[in-house]
Amino acid sequence: MKTGVPYERVVDVQRRREEYSRAQMYYRCGLALASVATLLLVAMTLQNLLSTRGRSSSHSPVPSPRFHLPRAETCSDACRVVLVESIPEGLVFNSSIANPSIYQAWLNLIGEAHSTLDIASFYWTLTNKDTHTQEPTAHQGEDVLKRLAEVAEKLTVRIAVNEAHDKSTADLTLLTNSGANVRSVNMLKLTNGVLHTKFWIADKKHIFIGSPNMDWRSLTQVKELGAVVYNCSCLAEDLGKIFEAYWFLGQSGQQIPSPWPSTFSTAYNKETPLQLPLNGTQSSVYLSSSPPSLCAEGRTPDLQSILSVIGDANDFVYIAVMNYLPTLEFSRPKRYWAAIDTQLRQVAYERQIKVRMLISHWASTQPVMIPFLKSLASVQQDKNRLDIQVRLFVVPATPKQKEIPYARVNHNKYMVTDKIAYIGTSNWSGDYFLNTAGSALVVNQTGSQAQGPTVQSQLQAVFERDWNSAYSTPIDHAFQGNT
Ligand SMILES: *[C@@H]1O[C@H](CO)[C@@H](O)[C@H](O)[C@H]1NC(C)=O
Ligand SMILES: *[C@@H]1O[C@H](CO)[C@@H](O)[C@H](O)[C@H]1NC(C)=O
Ligand SMILES: *[C@@H]1O[C@H](CO)[C@@H](O)[C@H](O)[C@H]1NC(C)=O
Ligand SMILES: *[C@@H]1O[C@H](CO)[C@@H](O)[C@H](O)[C@H]1NC(C)=O
Ligand SMILES: *[C@@H]1O[C@H](CO)[C@@H](O)[C@H](O)[C@H]1NC(C)=O
């Protein structure tokens, strides 16, 4: 498969598309039938109750109509989820909380793939060559690139990448020459944004999603977090629809369809999440996506998912993101954008939710982030049980590590509440939700009696490890007086 896509595969894709739309049609018909049946049932139940108990019964066990609504299908795959991290060289925690590495997760996915591997990516710099360094810690990235090139000779490897990243050229030329299909998506032209998503899909069955770019530093010099879900074709198929949208837009001259054809639609969203077992625990899961123009019917936009997760918290909201700004970072003239900021202040004020924000500080931090974070951190008063706290996480660097460009930073993009784990790929400022392509995995296990750890409890442990570590400083202590 050195040259392009063989004819059979094109036909195969076409056939699969048709199957999808047929499945979609059956699903819709099923939905319609089920709705009619539900209405009848509800009507009968109501009539029964009304005639036997009268209208005044205040504790009547009328089943909520929602109970009967057809749920999106459940999934019987024995999905296994693992949180994975990159911990920068030299960073040491006084804690037993440790997760497998992202490097290992990527090797596992490469090893598990027998027919297809799809990767959505921002840019590619997996070797020392690209940064003109001689870093021994580039070895892991170089190994990933080598193995990807090997599998590209045997399997269908598709890579969607943001257009106009010259530095991606060397890696992508190698992969293309090995047989990978690469499409660059011109998000600048399409939405005035970039393709910033980072996920993998192996054999339409195993997935990875998280903060790391296809960059050797993401494995050894930058702090990253992601999730890998094995043996989970239902979730992988849904993530595949987001990939197919990038793949479609990667054709030259392509416009964003409006509406998107139904093959891109999903039944799984914040209202009707996918029901599946994760490590044996029944879970509600969905994938959100941004910007809204890339969301086909049924897809929850990423901003809506963040706002609803914050709004659904009962006790706390912990947020760990690299950048947090209530603005459009890249817009000129400047624009204020406070959707998330307002939601945080609102839950803190109205419902006394504890908000903790762990934000990164490094050489490239925009100074304007600091006063906005201080403003949030000033929402703090015992009497009214106002409790928002902000800490800055700094990844220390030796003089030698300081020479590595764009490294030594906490690049995490996740949120954990007392109920939900949210693992995303976006910085938290307006641009990432309005123009830039990103996506997130939202896991809700509150409905079930979990045996052992949940994704939520594991992510909470990661947050608390970092929050309580010597690398975090309350923002008031970090910047006394002027910034
Ligand atoms: C997927 O499930 C199969 C069958 O249970 C199992 O043999 C295999 O090891 C699993 N793969 C992964 C990556 O967990
Ligand atoms: C996140 O924000 C930083 C600073 O603006 C930017 O350099 C980076 O490209 C953004 N995206 C990534 C890679 O997470
Ligand atoms: C999580 O699941 C519970 C019960 O299954 C549901 O009531 C709640 O709305 C869900 N939360 C979110 C943010 O989806
Ligand atoms: C799921 O199981 C794997 C081992 O198969 C384990 O590494 C991981 O921590 C478990 N995840 C959760 C959320 O329990
Ligand atoms: C670990 O604990 C020691 C002793 O309490 C402390 O000096 C050090 O700063 C801690 N390191 C981290 C990374 O938290």
Give your account of this protein's structure.
By secondary structure, the protein is of the alpha+beta class. Helices cover 36% and strands 22% of the residues. The strands form four sheets. Strands 10, 11, 12, 15, 16, 17, 18, 19, 20 and 21 form a ten-stranded mixed beta sheet that branches. The chain has a seven-stranded mixed beta sheet with strand order 1-9-7-6-2-4-5, sandwiched between helices. The radius of gyration is 24 Å and the shape is globular. It binds 2-acetamido-2-deoxy-beta-D-glucopyranose (5 copies). One 2-acetamido-2-deoxy-beta-D-glucopyranose is lined by residues 270, 284, 308-309, 312, 420, 444, 446-447. The site of one 2-acetamido-2-deoxy-beta-D-glucopyranose has 5 residues, from loops. The chain crosses the membrane at residues 25-46. Its EC number is 3.1.16.1. Its main location: membrane. This is 5'-3' exonuclease PLD3.
Structure characteristics:
alpha+beta; 10-stranded mixed beta sheet; 7-stranded mixed beta sheet; 16 helices; 21 strands; globular; binds 2-acetamido-2-deoxy-beta-D-glucopyranose
- Based on CA inertia axes, which overall geometry fits? globular
Hetero ligands: 2-acetamido-2-deoxy-beta-D-glucopyranose
Beta-strand content = 15-25%
Based on DSSP secondary structure assignment, what is the total number of beta strands? Answer: 21
In short, what is this structure?
This protein has 483 residues and is an alpha+beta fold. It has 16 helices and 21 strands. It catalyses: Exonucleolytic cleavage in the 5'- to 3'-direction to yield nucleoside 3'-phosphates.
